[in-house]
């Protein structure tokens, strides 16, 4: 009943009334079937049952002894959280938010690097204008500007360094010759320092962009391997970013995926009653570029269809693999060949059967590897526990040995004290005189002996004091 009411609370958020009733009816039927199967009780689901369950849930704390309304609400909240966790199954490795952020940063970096490179070209072009014609790539130009500095200092010795940067001996020689007969203005050392520092910043940004692209590839292979195998990591990431998430992309129909990114053109065409766009973001894939002008629309529609299938497989499969993406890519290649040469492609059913067989093998292999990793992890944990216990045992043994040594050091001191006490007792026994009848005193207990010895000592002290007083009085 509580589970049913929690389901009802979830449905009561924002949903049409007809849909709510239908879903609650399905839930009632499923719960009734489960009770009949497990316990053998015939269950009834209907309008009255729902109201009875609602009443039971409302007064549940009054019906059960020892249950307060506050604890019941806490239990319901915990049940709702656990139910949500079980449904969501959050996996850290399959987070598409990181892909959205990284592709946005990649696009921004492309713009910034292009702007900064143009600034370096313009700035360093005052001093060495011929270099722009020889080297066209921005990254290489920035590296050369940093390496050359003052063109007058270039010589045959710096030819090796130029070859390393340009990766072409003819270009390096052309740069050296151009530096000797350049028409550029002279430049001060302070200006050169600023140009070099700015070009080093542009170089570092370009290198960071390469690292970011590798990170994006690794994330796409984890989150959407089929989509990245079909259309490429960058285009796939752009589709996910534009849709908002991989789940949203999987929910889109193929017609929406086809024009995703061309919304402005679509609404303009609808407003002016012109031709709607044939492709959006998927235009950046290699397939549409390779197709003939008359076949671009057809191939974009086919590619959007396959992208939708790949995104759904990636979104809802437990162990994501790139097998389906590779097979879908082969299908697009066959369709391209069909448009060009007329060679009939394979049927979709055959290709998907092959993909399912291969994917099952790959998934089995991945599961084996995961099991091996888990076993190794358990072994390491056991070894760590053993090592910990061994260290604890060694520490305990060391403490015991320290205590034993302390006891051994204390024992001789005790023995010495005992010996001293025995010697004192022997001396006191010698000092004690025999009784008047001439017979020796019987053996007394230790405490009595001590008292006797102390009394004798006090008497001796008193006698000494009396003698000293008598001497003092005589002297006076």
UniProtKB/TrEMBL annotation:
Domain Nop: 223-341
Cellular component GO terms, alphabetical: box C/D methylation guide snoRNP complex; small-subunit processome
Disordered: annotated segments: 367-476
Subcellular location: Nucleus, Nucleolus
GO molecular function: snoRNA binding
Compositionally biased region (Basic and acidic residues): 382-392
Biological role: Involved in the early to middle stages of 60S ribosomal subunit biogenesis. Required for the biogenesis of box C/D snoRNAs such U3, U8 and U14 snoRNAs. Part of the small subunit (SSU) processome, first precursor of the small eukaryotic ribosomal subunit. During the assembly of the SSU processome in the nucleolus, many ribosome biogenesis factors, an RNA chaperone and ribosomal proteins associate with the nascent pre-rRNA and work in concert to generate RNA folding, modifications, rearrangements and cleavage as well as targeted degradation of pre-ribosomal RNA by the RNA exosome.
Protein name as catalogued: Nucleolar protein 56
Protein species of origin: Uria aalge (Common mure)
